[in-house]
Write the C-alpha cells for this entry.
Amino acid sequence: MKTTAALLLAGLLVGCASVDVESFDTRDEQRPATTAGKVVVFDGEDSVDRPYRRIGALQWWGRNADAESVNAALREEAARIGADGVVRIDDEAKAAGPFFWHVEYVSGFAEAISFEPQPER
C-alpha cells in the first residue's frame, strides 16, 4: 500500500511530458515522406548552413516537455510532410501551479524546410 501511494505521489510530482505538433503544408509539389532520423533541427534561420525552401509551418504545444522531446515531435511531423529540416523560430515556456504540482507549458512555431539542390562541382 505504501509503495502504491509513493508511486502515485511521484507521478503527481513529476507530471506527464507531452508534445503535440500541427503542420500547415505550403508545398507546391508533393514530396514523399521521409524518416525522422533524417530531419535536421536548426535553432533560428541564421543557423541553417545551406540554401532552403519553406514547405510548411509547424506549431507545437505541450507540458513538462524538454527540448529533446519537442525536437523529436517536430522531426516526426516534418518527416511526415517530406521535409529535410526544421527551423525553430519562436519558443515560449510558462510555469503554472503550486510548488507540489508544477506544470510547465511550452509552445512555439517552426518552419519545415527542404534543402535546395547543390550544384555539382
